[in-house]
């Protein structure tokens, strides 16, 4: 199967940065599909995991506890999403794909990095976003009506498109867009403290350094450091690696190979930590 199901266990930790939780809840209740836009490592996946858990606990109709996640790529076919006939012994049986499973059982289907999927795969989503929420299972010769609680959520990172890959307007305009950015410093420090296992003082210092590194975006740094990178750095520091070595390896190293930019970042590190 091309998807993975989650949804049980403790509530995934998520600190809200604006009104995204309420917006998502309203979208869910109104059966609106949602698009999460934002840079890598800013909390999109964690947010969906958190919301799926929250809605299940709240007993939203049809939510079975499942979040079905599909990592999109250019070889992903319609059959990978919808399902196919498989030969088992001397029988031919229909096996639901992740999208069909979610629609049938009223789960949230999260399609990560949707721009990676081909257009002929993406259009399969369209009828599910219309009022009747239908999923044609062409090969099985039936049409499935999505169960209550089913919701389509897609994510993408606008920075990666470079004009080559983008969603068509006919797809984009079927979704409510929730914009994600990096959290305000005090919220980000709390995330780093919680996720990285460091004390508040170190978390604040790491976020301060990261905010200064992000300003290098104006000087040609293509991808600025994400919350994910700060969390990894904090984890290294919490496990006993010296803070400068942890920053060099986990916060600066992944960002660029450009020697001038790296030198500028190391100067900032030396001046800050
Ligand atoms: N608001 C938040 N609350 C709690 N944790 C967060 C938050 N934002 C980011 N994180 C932390 O950052 C990590 C990376 O976030 P996540 O995997 O959700 O990023 P993403 O936006 O899905 O990135 P990508 O586009 O690369 O998939 C999480 O595992 C979590 O530790
Ligand atoms: Mg993600």
Task: Walk me through the structure.
By secondary structure, this protein is of the alpha/beta class. The chain has helices at residues 20-29, 44-57, 78-82, 98-105, 119-122, 126-129, 169-172, 185-196, 200-214, 227-238, 243-252, 259-272; strands at residues 3-6, 34-37, 67-71, 83-88, 91-96, 108-112, 134-137, 142-145, 151-156, 176-179. The strands form 3 sheets. It has a 6-stranded mixed sheet. A two-stranded antiparallel sheet has the order 4-5. Strand 4 and strand 5 form a beta hairpin. It is elongated, with a radius of gyration of 21 Å. The termini are far apart. The mean pLDDT is 92. The structure holds adenosine-5'-triphosphate (ATP) and magnesium ion. Adenosine-5'-triphosphate is lined by residues 13-15, 17, 38, 40-46, 157, 183, 191, 195, 227-228, 231.
Looking at this protein, list some descriptive labels:
273 residues; alpha/beta; two-stranded antiparallel sheet; 12 helices; 10 strands; 41% helix; binds adenosine-5'-triphosphate; binds magnesium ion
């Amino acid at each position: 199967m091309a998807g993975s199901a989650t949804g049980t266990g403790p509530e995934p930790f998520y600190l809200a940065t604006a009104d995204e939780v309420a917006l998502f809840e309203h979208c869910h209740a109104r059966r609106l599909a949602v698009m999460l836009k934002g840079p890598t490592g800013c909390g999109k996946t964690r947010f969906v995991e958190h919301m799926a858990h929250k809605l299940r606990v709240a007993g939203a109709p049809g939510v079975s506890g499942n979040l079905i996640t599909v990592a999109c790529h250019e070889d992903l076919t319609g059959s990978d999403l919808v399902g196919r006939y498989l030969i088992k012994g001397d029988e031919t049986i229909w096996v639901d794909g992740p999208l069909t499973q979610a629609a049938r059982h009223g789960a949230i289907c999260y399609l990560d990095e949707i721009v990676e999927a081909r257009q002929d795969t993406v259009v399969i989503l369209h009828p599910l976003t219309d009022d009747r929420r239908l999923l044609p299972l062409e090969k099985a010769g039936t049409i499935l009506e999505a169960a209550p609680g089913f919701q389509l959520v897609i994510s993408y990172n606008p920075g990666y498109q470079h004009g080559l890959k983008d969603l068509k307007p006919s797809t984009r305009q079927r979704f409510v867009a929730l914009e994600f950015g990096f959290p305000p410093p005090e919220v980000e420090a709390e995330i780093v403290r919680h996720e990285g296992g460091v004390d508040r003082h170190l978390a604040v210092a790491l976020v301060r350094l990261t905010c200064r590194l992000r300003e290098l975006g104006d000087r040609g740094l293509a991808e600025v450091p994400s919350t994910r990178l700060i969390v990894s750095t904090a984890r290294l520091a919490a496990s006993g690696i010296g803070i400068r070595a942890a920053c060099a390896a986990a916060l600066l190293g992944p960002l660029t190979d450009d020697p001038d930019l790296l030198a500028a970042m190391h100067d900032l590190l030396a001046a800050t930590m």
